[in-house]
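Data deposition worksheet. Section B asks for the primary sequence of the deposited chain exactly as it was used as input, without tags or linkers unless they were present during the calculation. Section C holds the resulting structure in token form. Section D is free text for depositor observations; keep each observation to a single sentence. Incomplete worksheets are returned to the depositor.
Section A, Depositor: J.P.
Section B:
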Amino acid sequence: MLVFPAIVIPLTMRMNMDMAGVLGLSFWMYLLFGCTALPWGIIADRWGGRALMLIYYTGAGLSGLAAALCLNSPLGLTLALAALGLFSGIYHPTGLGIISKEIKRVSVGMGVNGMFGNLGLATAPLLTGLVNWLWGPRAAYIILGGMNLLGLLLMAVYPIYTARQTREVKKSEENGLIGAFIILLVAMMLGGIVYRAATVILPAYFELKNQTLVMWLSNLIHADLSQNLVATSVTSLIFLIGMLGQYTGGRFAERFDPRIGYLIFFGITGPPALLMAYAGNFMLVALALWYFFFLLGMQPMENTLVAKFTPRRFHHSAFGTKFVMTFGVGALAVKIVAAIESNYYIEAVFLFIAAISLIAIVAILLLIIRTRAPVPAGKFKPAAPQPSG
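Section C:
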């Protein structure tokens, strides 16, 4: 999903379009990535995780290759990206549902999963920027398609097995707090908007605001570095450090009340988001590191709360609902960012992010008030084994 933001400016030159127009090509990708999460989650609850993961890798791989063939056609690229979003929507409800059902230390499991997810987030802009520098944006999508198809091989070598007891959970063993889950959905939706707005604009924002940094690095290593390569490299560094945020958030949610951690981490993202509207070069990079460490660090807490507030047998569907709100509604951020950049100025995007973050904090406070009893930290009680006969 982060290959596209890394080549926005190269695509503006290749397709002879302005930035707002190129950003708009990704709208259906992000919308389908989120909106299809619930139907995929319902299917995963019925079919299990393995079949859905096979569909995911096959569909995403072929869609990436199709995008590589359609870079000269705005309509063709829009359709290929939409297909990429459709199949990529499988992962979160399927993968996180498996973790919530199969892993005893759910918070840490979510944190570790987030760390490896962040490794992918860090690799995407760096690899994309390097490949674009060497061979152009078409090669980036060819490699993306090939890496997804490689997932089929990994699925064959390391098949997913589901324990019998997680498929047959007694109603007396189910947890659930639907009212709290609805409030949590609102907070996660707002979090999805700020996440998508920040990630879709970050590489281009760095490319426009870090000219002094580019000159300094070029002089340091005596090479003529492109602004795109530096911007995507810095973006990768930020997501790489975000891995520590994911692990920190997972450990925090295991030891303390995840609702309080969710409030603290989200609250800490507000000041750097506001300041990023006025910063550039080294200060901008430092603020972005601060912002994404805590923005990504709160995700294991979110996922832990989803698992605690919903019945175990519906965890795939619950995570699907979450990602409809975070990535589906969050896809509106692509349109909002394009409108802000077109009608005002690009720095105003971060003022918008700071304002939405403040509203999200209010929603989390309502969640804490709604669930007055502390949400227990630590491990889930595993489902009791069922008779094999």
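Section D:
The CA atoms of residues 155 and 205 lie 37 Å apart.
The chain has one domain: 3-158+175-370.
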